[in-house]
Design brief:
The chain is mainly beta. The protein contains 10 helices and 35 strands. It has 4 domains: 203 residues, no CATH class; 94 residues, Immunoglobulin-like (Sandwich), CATH 2.60.40; 109 residues, Immunoglobulin-like (Sandwich), CATH 2.60.40; 117 residues, no CATH class.
């Protein structure tokens, strides 16, 4: 019996040891560890990038991501992590871990160039060992519960517990560029759209962050292997920090090369060439899978040049330097690999409001193309979206009826080229040349006034919309016992919102309608709100319900919204939830609130 107790205690200690992870709360904590401290490791770059995607932290210490960011969909190479090694704490029901940082999958090509800089230009194992892992609920992709950083044990497929840390939300905001949510004159949080930080400022902030954490690029080494025969044998990471190679679009759908090369490299080379290569599979494979589409001789340290190579996924600029005529004739070194163009210009899909679907603009052979992501559970999408169509526009300033061409959503062709466990993917290639300013829009029906999604203009300034629900505190109405509203309808996900609150011990619903949404009663004529005793209840297993058009309007000074309320007979209790149903069926909830939590 004593031996059994001892074994049991040892087993419990083991469980505690594998799930106990040290938390890092500030930059000094990050500086004190060895995680990702030198090139070619990229863990700190991944952490910095992720922090840029966080809008804020709510009152429950949950990170709020940008509205269109969905790790479930595989954005930026995110994929499910099962925690088989038990390195991270166990999760509750309906929660999952998702991981990013593996630079091999196609989705990772959408990551910024600075994340994979050393991965492209070295071949040592450390170049792809770091990962970032988030925990999240299945149906709430914009809410991140916890964040971890970890790394693979070299030459193994498991993670190193001693190199695994939890990142406090406060540190995420310290690393990132948070958007401060400020009160307006009515003591309300406003809804506004603002441009993201420019690329140059991002690089400046990244360099500052890496310096603060003690990151070093001098340890980046290069090993010789038959698989990388064409890579430079004298690669020194720090020497080539100033190189910039990018592919952009011309007005006719061709590729434009933009470059910056340190002047001393130009001066010390007899010949400088940049080759535009077409990778047929991946830039990580042997060079036999690469076709040289164009070779350009460079004489200036910086500039841009339009080519006759159509813009498409897989294009990659590669720099060659020849110090002498001998090298030009007898060697074939690639000095620097630029980022591989991912086809979508680094932009993730845009959510189609009210449906489990998204749309993405991408380039193929110089043409503007559209990709539809349909969640596998949305099995009847062709019936529901039978009249929906995608319009292609030369400019984001064009009116909805001034499209260049269009195609009905149900006519998109299913593709197997992009594999994701949660979504089916459909594509359509238009005849419109991809060019700066091109945009696609998803319209609900044959009318022109219901745009459910529109992509950012091609190569335009990326913008992010800040909603009241993205802010850390809520005060849309002075009601102490309420959660923040969940917005779910309209071009910017802000035309309608649902909020649960309590009054006299009962569960109540508050419905927000943007004042410009004048025909909401017609749109939501059959829509209803269900009250549920638990978030685990099925949609048709409600305690009670009420049609939204029958909600009572309340007097309020909110400049942006009209507010309607309904008080149910359900006693408020932990776990109570309300859901918005778009029609008489209970097939799909357009939005559902967080389960009620006791104070």
């Amino acid at each position: 019996m004593g031996a059994m107790r001892l074994c049991f205690l040892l087993f419990c200690l083991f469980l505690v040891s594998v799930s106990s992870v040290k938390k890092l709360s500030n930059i000094d904590d990050l500086k004190s560890i060895d995680y990702g401290k030198s090139a070619p490791r990229h863990g700190l770059q991944i952490l910095f990038w992720f922090a840029q995607k966080v809008l804020n932290v709510d009152q429950n210490n949950i990170l709020i991501l940008e509205p269109n960011f969905d790790p479930h969909r595989g954005d930026f190479g995110f994929h499910r992590y099962l925690n088989k090694e038990g390195v991270l704490p166990s999760l509750g029901s309906l929660q999952n871990y998702y991981m990013v940082g593996n630079l091999k999958p196609p989705g990772a090509k959408a990551l910024p160039a600075y994340v994979g800089k050393y991965y492209r230009n070295t071949n040592v194992p450390q170049r792809n060992m770091d990962r970032l892992i988030v925990s999240m609920e299945q149906n709430r992709p914009q809410r991140i519960l916890r964040v971890f950083i970890t790394s693979h044990n070299l030459h193994k497929n498991d993670f190193n517990p001693s190199d695994t840390y939890e990142i406090d939300p406060a540190l995420i905001l310290q690393v990132g560029d948070p958007h401060n949510c400020t009160l307006d004159q009515n003591n309300n949080y406003g809804i506004y759209t603002m441009p993201r930080t420019s690329q140059d400022k991002i690089y400046d902030r990244l360099n500052t962050f890496l310096t603060e954490t003690g990151y070093s690029s001098t340890d980046c080494t290069h090993s010789h292997s038959s698989r990388r025969k064409k890579r430079s044998p004298y690669l020194q990471c720090k020497t080539y920090e100033g190189i910039k190679l990018e592919m952009k679009a011309t007005t006719q759908g061709f590729s434009k090369l933009i470059w910056e090369i340190p002047a001393e490299m130009i001066d010390n080379s007899k010949y400088v060439h940049i080759e535009i290569c077409q990778n047929t599979y991946s830039s990580d494979t042997n060079d036999v899978d690469t076709q040289v589409r164009k070779q350009l001789t460079i004489y200036e340290s910086s500039g841009d040049l339009e080519t006759d190579v159509y813009l498409k996924a897989g294009l990659q600029p590669r720099l060659r330097l020849y110090p002498s005529l001998f090298d030009f004739h007898f060697t074939n070194p690639y000095i620097w690999y630029g980022p591989e163009f991912d086809g979508a210009n680094g932009m993730i899909p845009t959510r189609i409001k009210g449906f489990d679907a998204s749309i993405q603009l991408y380039a193929e052979d110089g043409k503007a193309c559209a990709r539809l992501y349909i969640k596998k559970t949305f099995s009847k999408w062709k019936d529901v979206l039978a009249n929906s169509w995608v319009g292609f526009y030369k400019s984001s300033q064009d009116k909805n009826d001034d499209y260049y061409t269009y195609q009905y959503a149900y006519k998109f062709a299913k593709t197997e080229n992009y594999i994701t466990h949660n979504y089916d993917i459909y594509q359509y290639d238009s005849s419109l040349a991809i060019a700066p300013g091109v945009q696609i829009r998803f319209l609900q029906d044959k009318k022109y006034n219901k745009v459910l999604a529109q992509t950012a203009p091609w190569e335009g300034v990326e913008e992010v919309t800040i909603l009241p629900s993205d802010c850390g505190k809520q005060d849309l109405q002075s009601e102490p016992s309420s959660n923040g509203p969940e917005f779910f309808y309209g071009p910017e996900l802000d035309q309608a919102g649902l909020q649960i609150f309590t009054m006299d011990g009962k569960a109540c619903a508050r419905f927000y309608i943007k004042k410009t949404f004048t025909d909401w009663k017609e749109t939501f004529y059959y829509s209803w709100v269900g009250f549920y005793t638990s978030s685990k209840n099925k949609n048709d297993d409600y305690y009670t319900y009420h049609y939204v058009v029958k909600f009572e309007k309340i007097e309020d000074d909110n400049e942006n919204y009209d507010i309607y309320q309904y008080k149910s007979k359900l006693d408020i209790a932990p776990g109570v939830q309300i859901r918005f149903m778009i029609d008489k069926s209970a097939d799909k909830a357009s939005v559902q609130t967080e389960p009620w939590k006791s104070d």
